[in-house]
Amino acid sequence: MGIRNRLETLLEDKRVLVVGAGGIGCELLKNLVLTGFKKIHVVDLDTIDVSNLNRQFLFRREHVNKSKAEVASAAVQKLQPNVNITFDHDSIFNGDKFGISFFKEFNLVMNALDNRSARNHVNRLCLSAGVPLIESGSAGYIGQVSVIIKGQTQCYECTSKPAPKTYPGCTIRNTPSEHIHCTVWSKHCFNQLFGEVAIDDDVSPDLNDPENKTAEEATETMMNGNGHTAMEEGNTNGFHTNGVAAEESNKNTVVPSTRKWAEESGYNAKLIFDKLFHDDIEYLLTMKDLWKSRKPPTPITFANVTDEAQGGGSTEMTDDVNDIMKQWTLKACARVFVESVDALKTRKSGLPEGQLLSWDKDDDDAMRFVAAVANLRAHIFSIPGKSLFEIKSMAGNIIPAIATTNAIVAGMVVVEAIKVLRGRKDLIRTVYINRQPNPRGQLLMDDDPYPPRKECFVCSSDKREVFVKVNLNVMTLKMFKDKVLTGHFSVQSPDVLVATTGNIIISSDPDDDFSELENRTFQENNIADGAVLEVDDYLQDLKFSAVLFHDENQKDSFVVEQDTGAKPGESPTEEEASEAKRKRKSEGEPSASEGHDEESQAKRMRIAAE
Amino acid sequence: MSTSGVYSPSNVLLENKRIEEEISAQEREIYDRQIRLWGMEAQNKLRNSTALLVGLTGLGAEVAKNLMLAGLRSITLMDDRIATPEDKMANFLLPDENFVGMNLAEGSADRAKELNPMVELNTITDGLKQRGKETWSKFDIVILIDQPFEEARRVDAECRELKVRFAAGSVFGGAGFAFFDFNNHDFLFKIKAPQFGTGDIDAPIVDNMTTIEDDRFEKQKVSYPSLQDFFSVDWTGKKYIRKVVRYLPQVYYPIKACLHGSDQGGFADTQSLREAWKAEVERNGQDCARFTYEEEDFEYFLGPQMSPVCAIVGGVIGQEAIKALSENELPLKNSFFYSAFDTVGVVCNLPPP
């Protein structure tokens, strides 16, 4: 009885943390109890969805909407009654509960997460607490496992991960050419009407499109009310102002938000339809420069779409609004639009004051709204439409996940876990699942773990620097905090001071009121090109310097240069570049997730609207 | 490999229409994520497939789980052994209480069924010896898990005759292997889509995302050697003597020794396993000194089955069975060897082509 006795002795007093009870998590928990792990804690905020059942095998239909952590713990507890398994149905970002001292209670942490910011967060806490971490991920047929031990192996953030794809605002708002542009726009549209409005989510025509040289003329047309709008028809709160006001404000006129407009119209679906798909399109057509080398869009009205008998292509399209595999006809889209706007309006009005809906691909009303809106807009711009099934993949960033890959990944996690707990660091490997065996026959491709990157802003001991290019005249401190620090660097509660002056400009203390400061741009706060900001997150025990560079080409966007450790403008040496390339190559694709990067984040933020 | 049919985009479209009617909304909801990976046509083939799984060990439970979740039409679990407390340590499908004395297939059935109530589940309480061609002919795939080598060889030969897909696998402690024989079965190969319109710069950019309609598929038959041929390569022969080191992972020898040992009821201790391993290495014209195994390392192959190893080998067997039944994706040819001890997971094509 060799292995079992040895494992029993080894695992008797070891306590491990599993972060995530989804696809990899379920498999992992099963493997852990069957291997003889005795003390397991699991954290997951998520609840069970029907689409989890094809792989998250500890869950059944009757468990839908229950806590993943709770149901999974109960299921594996039954498998081996002598195991001590505990759980938290909570977000790993909850710093009061899951701080450094919490992580120190464990001999090993295993990630089974589906999004990068949570991975970054756990990576930092494990480094700070000095606890080994096993990171894993899967996407379709491929997956990977790597061990992170401070000072010995590369941490999760030593290599920069490809940024999620973004599209220029002008393309989304003015000149979509692919269906994905319409899908992105339709999600923004949802937020404009029912959800939290982000800076980048505007859906109205973008007057500042660099391609549009006739902007001023067009603006005047818009402001003088020459175009016909739905709101003119008997409604006094339209987004047209009278001529005098318009002339005074002209180009910088703040068009009332789509939200306000919709609220004042009582969320009249037909009026919203005509504004989005007729009036705004008519307005786009006045920006003539845009259509010199493009096919101009064709405005549609609710009346036209619903009255017309559907013509060409009808064999491939369906009027059946419950058929999610086929592309809906325009008429069907209009019907879904009205139904979903009505349903969402009712749900929104049922929420407590100040609360909003949040878009979630598994929320049927929200998904149908987005599918209908995306296809209507696609039609207007002569872009072929898609089925709800296809749009859901794009809108929800769904990375397909299957049971077998997760089983293999979870098995590999436990194999590495045993090596770490045995103290056999010499045996530790980074392993990738290939889709097909490589020329050496390896289906599981293993490699020595990479050493930590000397310039890593998270795990290096001295050179913690990042370089950020922003437009100092445009970016406010608040934008910097939300988009750069939280959005890009996954910092949870930053304190920021200017290195040269020692002035605190961003504070994590809820008692501090920095709102005035935060709403001003860097330039207005006298923070100039080349300024060094000291960023500190006490929760993650993370400190690094952010060096700011002014870049006139950025609007409210930014560029981070941290890859090479070189300053912007300096190109990396050939050697460095090929090293980075080699790493990327061997890292394969699946550094991201078990699936659905956005999925659980959406859930995390979802307001109990049901 | 021979070509038996080319799928044009319009054929695929027609095919999709037909399938839509067959897969219910409920199934689509549950299988959503995998349909997004392997497509509706593959899912429809799975739901029309039947599998026989023999051997409800720790590895058997893993394979059963993976196939139940995938959504086949029916799965039959077969085992003639009686459950012991030892089985409960590995087979997570056994009930939590009162399982001792139950037949392993019947004891695993309830929990397997719970994994996916849409799949029909049957059991057979006979052993391999009591069954033959008549049984195998009822299935699209026969999978033998942790079965004695001699019996497995017979079943494979019979399945080849019947043109029934065959897979076998075993886990010995911290190492395992899988063997596949999908001889003369169709697989759908993707042909690179031809590039249209590259010279026509005025053509509107419709959509730069690859959709299923853009790809062309071609059905090809793949030939596989038998289990008999797989394990009877004479590595000392002129043809292979120089290739043996390149072709075989070091875990091949202990696994083959364990397989032969399983015909005699397994090994009592590390020493007898080591002897059998030595004989196997020498039979292949190799020198034992070439390998890094220490005496105590042989404990790793003695068992019991390590759960993570069952998960890995069971994951590969499950995935290959899914590929074969759905006639989708390139199949592995024709075996997989895994060892947790030296972190090796390689595919071997034996005999070498």
Rounded average pLDDT of chain B? 85
Kindly identify the CATH topology of the largest domain in chain A: Arc Repressor Mutant, subunit A
Structural class of chain B: alpha/beta
Biggest sheet features of chain B = 8 strands, mixed
Strands of the widest sheet of chain B, in order across it, are 4-3-2-5-6-7-10-11
Biggest beta sheet attributes of chain A: 8 strands, mixed
Residue fraction in strands of chain B: 15-25%
**Helical proportion of chain A?**
25-40%
**Count of helical regions of chain A:** 20
CATH structural class of the largest domain in chain A:
Mainly Alpha
Average pLDDT of chain A, to the nearest integer? 83
Number of domains of chain A: 3
Radius of gyration of chain B: 22 Å
Spans of at least 5 consecutive residues with low confidence of chain A: 218-255, 564-593, 595-610
Distance between the first and last residues' Cα of chain A: 54 Å
Amino-to-carboxy terminus distance of chain B: 14 Å
Q: Supply Rg of chain A.
A: 27 Å
Oligomer: heterodimer
Account of the protein in words:
The complex is a heterodimer of chains A (610) and B (353). Chain A folds into three domains: 3-164 and 402-447, NAD(P)-binding Rossmann-like Domain (Rossmann fold, 3-Layer(aba) Sandwich), CATH 3.40.50.720; 169-395, Orthogonal Bundle (Arc Repressor Mutant, subunit A); 465-562, Structural Genomics Hypothetical 15.5 Kd Protein In mrcA-pckA Intergenic Region, Chain A. Helix content of chain A is 37%, strand content 13%. Chain A contains 20 helices and 16 strands. In chain A, the strands form three sheets. An eight-stranded mixed sheet of chain A has the order 3-2-1-4-5-6-9-10, with helices on both faces. A six-stranded mixed sheet of chain A has the order 13-12-14-15-11-16. A two-stranded parallel ribbon of chain A has the order 7-8. Chain A is globular and about 80 Å long. Chain B is an alpha/beta fold. Chain B is 40% helix and 18% strand. Chain B has helices at residues 9-22, 25-30, 32-46, 58-70, 85-88, 104-115, 133-136, 149-162, 227-231, 244-247, 252-263, 270-283, 299-302, 307-326; strands at 3-7, 50-54, 74-78, 120-124, 141-145, 165-172, 175-181, 185-191, 216-222, 335-339, 344-348. The model of chain B is unreliable at 1-14, 17-21 and 194-213 (pLDDT under 50). Strand 10 of chain A pairs antiparallel with strand 11 (344-348) of chain B, so a sheet runs across the interface. Chain A: Keywords: ATP-binding, Metal-binding, Nucleotide-binding, Nucleus, Transferase, Ubl conjugation pathway, Zinc.
